[in-house]
Amino acid sequence: MSSRNAMRTATLPAPLRVGLSRGGLEVKSFFREKEAVLFTFAMPVILLVVLGAILNGEIGATGIDYRQYLSAGIIAAGIMSTTFVGIGVGIATERDDGTLKRLYGSPMPRSAYFIGKTICALVLSVLETALLLVIGTVLYGLEPPGDLGRWITFGWVFMLGVASCTLLGIAISSVPRSHRSASTVLNVPFLVLQFTSGVFFMFGDLPKAVQQLSALFPLKWMCQGLRSALLPDTLLVQEPVPSWEHGRVALMLSLWCAAGLALCLTTFRWKRRDDR
């Protein structure tokens, strides 16, 4: 069976074959760094547990516990942290220490590098989402999607969220001048978006100007899409528009995928700014 699988892998196009190998290497390398593993998986869990202990109560007359609303938002923020922040900081570090320069000069297809990063982001996002779902279910009564339609919604929101934020993380990795500034450059916008996109606070309670500004970015739409899959429709009375707007969610996340890809193709650098 193993030889048959090896033969199938060997018939894949070289960039995809090498990309799959790099994806496995990226995942193994990540789990060898205990600090990165702890920060990536523990931080969203800590936020969910601590805020869940402080902020609780029913949302209006919806019958929905605020902590269930918080769980959906933290899942969306966890996806963005793993992809946008994690990938961006990782690439900036590899550029600064010369890893990207060495890979650029190697025979490896360049697209394989990005395939590997995307696979790693997807694997980590799946694990983190599953962990947060379990905690939300056990502690706060959050219910997984109750029918096939909601599972499908959850799936496409998850995939578009991972794709858009991964592409944006790759693109923004070229902004920091060094790995020392990368964490600040990526975490500052991420932190602001968490407070303005419906992660910690009811999105409908935010000022209209904040709602309109946040609607320009993907995190707001990820939160809304995940709420539609995980929470009852009775919550719609608390939404700015009495509809989950699935078409608009898909459109905005797809537009961010396209924008992220365009930025990657035009701004990505394999070398440091001071390299020639």
UniProtKB/TrEMBL annotation:
Domain ABC transmembrane type-2 intervals: 35-273
Transmembrane segments: 36-57, 69-93, 114-139, 151-172, 184-203, 249-268
Pfam family, one: ABC2_membrane
Bilayer topology annotation: Multi-pass membrane protein
Main location: membrane
UniProt keyword 4Fe-4S present: no
Keywords assigned: Antibiotic resistance, Cell membrane, Membrane, Transmembrane, Transmembrane helix, Transport
Presence of the UniProt keyword Transport in the record: yes
Family to which the UniProt record says this protein belongs: Belongs to the ABC-2 integral membrane protein family.
Protein name as annotated: Transport permease protein
